[in-house]
Specification:
The structure holds 2 protein chains of 2 kinds. By secondary structure, chain A is an alpha/beta fold. In chain A, 34% of the residues lie in helices and 23% in strands. Classes of the chains: A alpha/beta, B mainly alpha. Chains A and B meet through loops of A and helix 7 and helix 8 of B. The complex binds adenosine-5'-diphosphate (ADP) and magnesium ion. Chain A: It comes from Ancylobacter defluvii.
Chain lengths: 266, 258
Amino acid sequence: MIASASPPLVELNQVSLAYGEGRERTLALADATMTIAKGEFVAVVGPSGCGKSTLMKLVTGLIPPSSGEVRVRGERVTRPIKGVGMAFQNATLLPWRTTRDNVMLPLEVVEPHKRRLRAERAAYFDKAERLLASVGLGEFGDKYPWQLSGGMQQRSNVCRALIHEPEILMLDEPFGALDAFTREELWGIMQALWLERRFTTVLVTHDLREAVYLADTVYVMSRRPGRMVKIRKVELPRPRTLETTFQAEFVDIVHELRERIQMEHG
Amino acid sequence: MTARQERLARLAMPWLTLAVLLAAWELACVLLEVPEIVAPRPSRVFEVIVQRWDLLLRFCLETLWTTMIGFVLAIGFGLLLGLAIGASPFVYSGLYPLLIAFNAIPKVAIVPILMIWLGIGALPAIITAFVISFFPIVVNVATGLATIEPEMRDLMRSLGASNYEILTKVGIPRAMPYLFASLKVAATLAFVGSVLSETVGGNRGIGFLMLSASARNDSATTFAGLFAIAIMGVAVYAACALMERRMTRWAFRGELVR
Ligand SMILES: Nc1ncnc2c1ncn2[C@@H]1O[C@H](COP(=O)(O)OP(=O)(O)O)[C@@H](O)[C@H]1O
Ligand SMILES: [Mg+2]
C-alpha cells in the first residue's frame, strides 16, 4: 500500500500529560499512542474526565506534552499547528456577530484569507453562504446566534470550523448537548461534508453509536489517566444512514465497544 | 390591559411614585407643622427653583462640566487599565491589590490634600469625580476580559491568532456590556465626587451653593440644590443607559432586538 509508505498525518508517541505541579499534579493522559492517516475519520470514546479534550489540545499543539512526542506532517509539534478547525460542545458563537460573521471569523485570522479578505469580500461572503446552505442554514446568515436553535448553532459552529478549509478537523463532543433527533440529523450532515471534502477528523464523543456511524477507526480510552485500550476499525460501507444503525454488523460493533467501556467502570 | 396601555402605565409609574412621595412629604410638613428650616415643604422648594433658576442653573452647569470631565477621564483611564488588568496576569497581580486599597480610602479624606496641592477651584472637583468613578469601570472591564470562555481562546489560538487579535476580536467586544453597565454606576459616583469636593471646600458648583445656603439657614435653597443634583444624576444615568442599549444590543438578546 502506498498510504503506509508515506508518513501518517498525525502521530502520537507515548504521549503523557499532567496538569498542575506538586501535590496538585494530576495525570490526565498516559502513554497515548495513535496514528491518524490523512483523510481518516477517527473517533475517541471514553469515560468522562479521561483526558479526551486534553488529547485534542495536544494534537493541535495548544498545550505541550509532559512527555512523549506529537508529530504532525512528520514535524514535531511545539506550538499551535496550522490548518486546524475546532468545534466544541458549547458552540461559543460570538453573540455580537451574525451567524455569517461568526462563520467568517477564521478568515479574519488565518492566512492567506486574512490578507485577501478585504479585496475579495464578495467571494468569501458567497463561500460562507454556500457552506451555510450546505448544512441547511441558507437563510440564517443574518440571524444572531441566540436566534438559532441549539442544533442550528452547532451547525454554524461546524461551518466556522470548516470555512478556512482546514486539513484537520477537531470535534470535541460537538453534538453532546443536543436532543437525539437533532443529533442524528447532524451525523448525516457531518458525514456528507466529510465525504465531499475528506478532511482528517478527530471526533471526541461519549455516544458509541455516533462514533460507529461516523468513524473509520474508534479508539477507546481507559479511565483517568487515559490510555488507549482498544482500537476498532469500522468498515461499514458509506454513506451510512440511520438504517445502518439498526443492522446487525453495526449493533455488534457498538456492543463490542460498550463491553470494553463497561470494564472501565467495573 | 393591552400591551400599549401596559407600556404607558410602566412609563408613568416613576412619575406617579414621585408625585405620591412629594405629596406625602408636603402633607407631613403641613400636618406636623415642621419648621421650614428643618425640612422645607416641596412646594417651597419648587418656588425657590422657579424664583432662582438662573442662579441654580449657573451653579449646576459648573458642577455638570467638572463632573463630566472627571467622568470622561475615568472612562478613558478605566478602560485602559481594565484592559491591561484583564489581559495580563502580571498587571493584574501587580495592580489589583493596590487599586482595592486605594478604593477603600474614603474620598472625603483626599479632598483637603488635593486643595493643598491644587488650591480651590475646578481641578480638585474634577480629580475627585475621576478618582471616585474610575474604580467600577476598571473592575468591570477587567472582569469582561477575564471571563472569555477558555474554548473561545483555544479556538482563536488554534487558528493562529495573536493575543492582540484575541483581544480585539473577542475580548473588547465582550467587555463592552460590562463597560456600559459600569458607566451607569460610575456616572452617578462622579457627581458624588464633584459635589463632595465642592462641599468640603470650594467656591463654585452646586455643592458650594448648598453649603452657603445652609450657612444662611436657607434650607429651601439647600434642598433645591439637592433636587438639582438628583435631576442631573438621573439625566446622565439615562444618557448612559440609552448609549448602552445602542452599543450593546446583542447583550440583551431577544429582549430589545425587534
Ligand atoms: N486546565 C486544567 N487544569 C487542571 N486539571 C485539568 C485541566 N483540564 C483538565 N484537567 C483534568 O484532567 C482530566 C482530563 O480532562 P479532560 O481532558 O477535559 O477530560 P474529558 O474531555 O475526557 O472529559 C480531568 O480529570 C480534569 O479534571
Ligand atoms: Mg472534554
